[in-house]
């Protein structure tokens, strides 16, 4: 308990001189967020805790991968198997990867086969991201399954009137190279964006190499009557080695992924209702081969998902209504899991009342119907208070669920493992209280506390006959505290910090949940521009449990990024950047048994014209 008090005190002191790590600069415009309510509104009017990460902040950090962007956000842990291209999944407030929903411009990225989304498989280059919104806390009342712990939504760049083309090249340790191209513009009522990237790396472990190509594009039109039509498509082609853990290496294992995602969105006013209709198709082909394993593997999986969504928004005076529904059909063709398929549909509604100038009440309800297990109700209630122009207080209570995956239900009977078609969804209730406070013109601080009660956790257990299968076996209670801040100390100097404390326990055994952070601290400092040069320093400390009764060694990692633009004339601009990752060359692990990369230095050049 003494250690907890010390950590909270340290975080509180940090918060008194900073705001949320990815918070507002003193002179910045207030960001607009969408994820909290599925409608666009200023962040100060959102009824949930949302962190916004902008493209400018991504660039200043020198991040080259999505997991590097997310891992320093308050309340977020990224669980990685190490090498570039390896499995990396997000955790929000102690949730598993399959309990966190990841969206790309409103389209679900979570796999129906695995439940989670591998952040290494983002089907757009990082340079095409306009912003990322991280919603902390359950959101099944709006999004259904997988949103038990939170939602991460990625928004791609919107083409501007002025055409923009960029070429990028980066080189780093272990023969890591990434080249990219993108172009975008508006032409009358039309707009377009096209980008491509190619990345390769030898990796820092045996059999940890990567080759990856991404191509994506968008085409949109402003239609008569205020309507808008937009089509997007992306393709990821990836091959990488799978080195395994230190204890159980797999020097011959190889994996390939060929994923295609396409969507069409139509939006506009229908009478007094703002309507949005979207259809999307997701095709993922995965191959895993390991001829050197004790039981040689040659697995091939083809997952197809078809989705249709519609929602309407209507408001008058102090009232706002949102209603909608969706339909999804998943079909798997697998050499190991057979050819199962499922269907699900839902209806949802939300009502928001501005009771007074300083109090807003929100209620929401969603009903999900699944072809293979029980239907789920997901209610939510929230209260937003703004007693002063500089103070925001939020209270909320939500129910959420996570549906069993196709692998959970249809894993093949190998004699020692098999799936369980009789699984029930995981369910949870979460309660949250949060406050944000602006201190003068340069400083903002935040504090949130939450408690989550989870039932019917799905875990793989042994049935007494030597056969392992998933079952609804346990309950969990996770409570925690999140605090953070940012301060603009000088026009050339900004600093900030955030801290997360989690107490994740299995209520049936009393053990701590494995691979959940206990303490996570992130500090940063931004200097510049001085002589047009900008420096960013990031440090983070993590301490977590790798086993139910054993603490894993904590670690401190420092990153740095130095950047400078050069104006070349005739509309040309060149930006140079040097990024150091794991600057202190620490030996550490995000997942026990999977070492993270040693010190890496990257040089990047990007031309804009």
TrEMBL record:
GO cellular component assignments: cell outer membrane
Domain TonB-dependent receptor-like beta-barrel as annotated: residue spans: 206-520
Molecular function GO labels: siderophore uptake transmembrane transporter activity
Parts forming coiled coils: none
Domain TonB-dependent receptor plug intervals: 44-151
Matches recorded under SUPFAM superfamilies: Porins
Subcellular location: Cell outer membrane
Cited CDD domains: ligand_gated_channel (cd01347)
GO biological process, one term: siderophore transmembrane transport
Composition-biased stretches (Basic and acidic residues): 196-205
Membrane topology label: Multi-pass membrane protein
Region (Disordered): 180-205
Origin: domain of life: Bacteria
Alphabetical list of InterPro entries matching this protein: Beta-barrel_TonB, Beta-barrel_TonB_sf, Plug_dom, Plug_dom_sf, TonB-dep_rcpt-like
Keywords: Cell outer membrane, Ion transport, Membrane, Signal, TonB box, Transmembrane, Transmembrane beta strand, Transport
Ion transport in keyword set: yes
Residues making up the signal peptide according to the UniProt record: 1-25
Cross-referenced PROSITE patterns: TONB_DEPENDENT_REC_3 (PS52016)
Protein family per UniProt: Belongs to the TonB-dependent receptor family.
PANTHER family in the record: COLICIN I RECEPTOR-RELATED, TONB-DEPENDENT OUTER MEMBRANE RECEPTOR
Protein name, as recorded: TonB-dependent receptor
Species this chain originates from: Geoalkalibacter subterraneus
